[in-house]
Design a protein that fits this description.
- There is one protein chain.
- The chain has ten helices and seven strands.
- The chain is of the alpha/beta class and 280 residues long.
- The mean pLDDT is 86.
C-alpha cells in the first residue's frame, strides 16, 4: 500500500503508531531509516505558492532518499484534516495545496515512499486523498475499553508503585474511570423517551490514563514531603486523581465524544430496543 489513514479520538495513540511504524522500518532496513514528521502549520506559508513549494520539497526529499538508500521514507502528517481539507469547503489556495499533494503522491510509484495521515476528523479530509491507490488503508484507533485501560495502567504505574500494591492500584484506577456514577451529561431522546448517561468512561483515552498516574504521583509526592516517609502511590491517590479529573471534565466541551457516544451507544441501543419491541 502507498499510505494509511489513522483516525479516531484524540489521545489514543495515533502518533505512537507512526513512531512504531518508523521503528518497524528501522528493523527491516537498518538504523539509518528516517521519517518526516509534518504538521499542517509547518507546511503552510503566507506567501503565495510557497506552501505548494514546501509540499514538492518534501516529496523531492523522499524520492532522493529512496534513490540513495533503496528503501522507502516514511512521511507522517499529523492533523491531516488541516493540511488536506475538503476542496469543496475551503478557499482557493488551500484547494491548490491539496491538488499539489495529490499530483506529487501519484508520482511516487517508483520510489516507495509511505504516507501516514493522522486525524480526529476523517470526514474533513478531501475525498480524493483517501481513494484507493493513494491512501489504501483506513484504520480506526478507538478508545481503550476496560481491558485496554488495565494494560496501559500496568505499564504506566510500575516505576512508582510498590510491587505488592500494583494490582490494587490498577484495579482502583480502572474502577474509578469506568464508574457509571461519574455522570457528565444525561441525554434524552424525546421521540423514544429513552435517557442515556454520558459518563467519564466515554471520554477515556490512553493519554488520560497516563495523565492520571502523573496526578497520583504528584499527590503521593506532596504527602511524602509532608510526612518525611516514602510511601509510593496508593489506591487512594489514584481515586483522588480520578475525582479531580472528573470535576474538571464536567465543565469542558465534549462535542467530539458526545457525537461518538450518540453514534455508537445511544442510537444502536434505541434501535435494538425498538426491534425487540417489534418482535414481542
Amino acid at each position: 500500500p502507498k499510505g494509511v489513514l489513522l483516525f479516531g479520538p484524540p489521545g489514543c495513540g495515533k502518533t505512537l503508531f507512526a513512531k512504531a511504524a518508523a521503528s518497524a522500518m528501522a528493523r527491516l532496513h537498518g538504523k539509518d531509516v528516517e521519517y518526516i514528521l509534518l504538521r499542517a502549520n509547518e507546511l503552510d506559508s503566507k506567501w503565495v505558492g510557497q506552501t505548494e513549494a514546501n509540499i514538492r520539497a518534501v516529496f523531492a526529499f523522499a524520492r532522493a532518499y529512496q534513490t540513495k538508500h533503496g528503501h522507502p521514507c516514511l512521511i507522517f502528517i499529523d492533523e491531516a484534516d488541516a493540511a488536506l481539507p475538503d476542496r469543496n469547503s475551503v478557499w482557493q489556495f488551500s484547494a491548490e495545496n491539496v491538488a499539489t499533494f495529490l499530483s506529487e503522491m501519484d508520482g511516487l510509484d517508483s520510489n516507495g515512499a509511505f504516507i501516514m495521515l493522522a486525524t480526529n476528523r476523517p470526514d474533513a479530509i478531501d475525498e480524493a486523498v483517501l481513494r484507493d491507490g493513494r491512501i489504501d488503508r483506513r484504520i480506526r484507533v478507538g478508545r481503550p475499553n476496560v481491558a485496554d485501560a488495565r494494560e496501559i495502567a500496568l505499564r504506566a504505574l510500575p516505576y512508582t508503585v510498590p510491587v505488592n500494591d500494583l494490582l490494587a492500584c490498577v484495579e482502583t484506577l480502572v474502577e474509578q474511570l469506568f464508574d457509571p456514577t461519574h455522570l457528565l451529561r444525561a441525554l434524552t431522546n424525546h421521540d423514544t423517551g429513552l435517557t442515556h448517561h454520558f459518563t467519564l468512561a466515554h471520554t477515556v483515552s490512553g493519554a488520560m490514563i497516563v495523565g492520571l498516574v502523573e496526578r497520583a504521583k504528584a499527590i503521593a509526592f506532596r504527602r511524602d514531603m509532608a510526612t518525611g516517609k516514602v510511601s509510593g502511590v496508593t489506591p487512594d491517590d489514584l481515586t483522588q486523581a480520578v475525582l479531580a479529573l472528573y470535576a474538571e471534565q464536567r465543565g469542558l466541551n465534549h462535542d467530539y465524544a458526545l457525537r461518538e457516544f450518540v453514534e455508537t451507544v445511544a442510537i444502536p441501543f434505541e434501535t435494538a430496543r425498538a426491534q425487540r419491541q417489534a418482535m414481542n
